[in-house]
Amino acid sequence: MILLDGKKTSADIKEEIALEVRDLKDLGKKTPHLAAIIVGNDGASITYVNAKVKACERVGFESTLIRLPEETTEEDLLNEIAILNVDKDIDGFIVQLPLPKHIDEQKILMAVDPDKDVDGFHPTNVGKMALNLPTFISATPFGILELLERYNVETSGKHVVVLGRSHIVGSPMSILLSQKRKVGNATVTMCHSRTKNLKEITLQADIIVAAIGIPEFLKADMVKDNVTVIDVGITRLADPSKKNGFRLVGDVAFDEVAAKSEFITPVPGGVGPMTIAMLLKNTLLACQRKN
Ligand SMILES: Nc1nc(=O)c2c([nH]1)NC[C@@H]1CN(c3ccc(C(=O)N[C@@H](CCC(=O)O)C(=O)O)cc3)C=[N+]21
């Protein structure tokens, strides 16, 4: 069993980005500036967005965090987005999801200037991604491709089973891995809540991407020997023995599945840190595009 170490790999990527930032500085060019908008007080969302801001500091990016109250109206949020869209100093920005229920997420994502959409969530960028045209690939799928590449995990001709059809992970991951690209050329099966005979399908998988949000869903009896497993799930389960009161659990029953795996990502320390590194990468690309 080989651990796909997202913590170490993301640290390597951040170091590479930091070097590029130093080059930009030395040349007297503008350095990257990422902004993030967060609405409301959800604890997990605040943790993630703070991690993004901290990562910016670490690589020498400017960052701006805009915190808006839970009661923020859709109109107020659209106004904030309009300001960031025209702010010459901001290279890219994200609107942290999920948003409060009274705000139409699709409307918000469509208001972001596609050239500043470093999350890659705008329909224009999703369309470009689907056509394999240069664009911002959203950070989680991008991070998974990068992790597979850096560990030389072969995907060409392999049967990949993606569990989950979300717009942010399952759907783009299925599209990307089936494309003609360095990490790609796979035969992809996408499974979801209506899939019948799921276990029959996962037992045929060379690579499984678990992105359904059900803690420890994928068990050892659902995978074949020497499988590669990418665990995108990240659920906070109450755990009184932990000082923060919870532990993080992925979509994979890690110990039992790891025993049968060739490669596997842990939670925490797998896909999560890669997501942050690739958001930085997209922001660097957004800045370099203008230089
Ligand atoms: N517009 C938008 N873009 C996102 O990219 C986005 C989002 N909204 N909403 C929420 C999800 C989730 N997400 C994570 C980022 C980092 C970790 C991460 O660093 N996880 C650490 C542990 C962090 C912890 O202690 O909770 C790990 O897995 O090792 C996890 C999850 C980005 N998301």
UniProtKB/TrEMBL annotation:
List the CDD domains hit by this protein, alphabetically: NAD_bind_m-THF_DH_Cyclohyd
What is the E.C. number? 1.5.1.5, 3.5.4.9
Q: Which residues form the Tetrahydrofolate dehydrogenase/cyclohydrolase catalytic domain?
A: 4-119
Q: Where is the Tetrahydrofolate dehydrogenase/cyclohydrolase NAD(P)-binding domain?
A: 138-290
Name the residues that bind NADP(+).
Answer: 164-166, 234
Q: Does the keyword Amino-acid biosynthesis apply?
A: yes
What InterPro entries does this protein's entry cite? Answer: Aminoacid_DH-like_N_sf (IPR046346), NAD(P)-bd_dom_sf (IPR036291), THF_DH/CycHdrlase (IPR000672), THF_DH/CycHdrlase_cat_dom (IPR020630), THF_DH/CycHdrlase_CS (IPR020867), THF_DH/CycHdrlase_NAD-bd_dom (IPR020631)
GO BP: L-histidine biosynthetic process; methionine biosynthetic process; purine nucleotide biosynthetic process; tetrahydrofolate interconversion
Could you state a single Gene Ontology molecular function term?
methylenetetrahydrofolate dehydrogenase (NADP+) activity
- Which reaction(s) are listed as its catalytic activity? (6R)-5,10-methylene-5,6,7,8-tetrahydrofolate + NADP(+) = (6R)-5,10-methenyltetrahydrofolate + NADPH; (6R)-5,10-methenyltetrahydrofolate + H2O = (6R)-10-formyltetrahydrofolate + H(+)
Is this entry keyworded NADP? yes
| This protein's pathway | One-carbon metabolism; tetrahydrofolate interconversion
The record's Gene Ontology cellular component field reads: cytosol
The alphabetized UniProt keywords are: Amino-acid biosynthesis, Histidine biosynthesis, Hydrolase, Methionine biosynthesis, Multifunctional enzyme, NADP, One-carbon metabolism, Oxidoreductase, Purine biosynthesis
What protein family is recorded? Answer: Belongs to the tetrahydrofolate dehydrogenase/cyclohydrolase family.
Q: How does this chain assemble?
A: Homodimer.
What does the protein in this record do?
Catalyzes the oxidation of 5,10-methylenetetrahydrofolate to 5,10-methenyltetrahydrofolate and then the hydrolysis of 5,10-methenyltetrahydrofolate to 10-formyltetrahydrofolate.
- Output this protein's name: Bifunctional protein FolD
Organism whose genome encodes this protein? Polaribacter aquimarinus
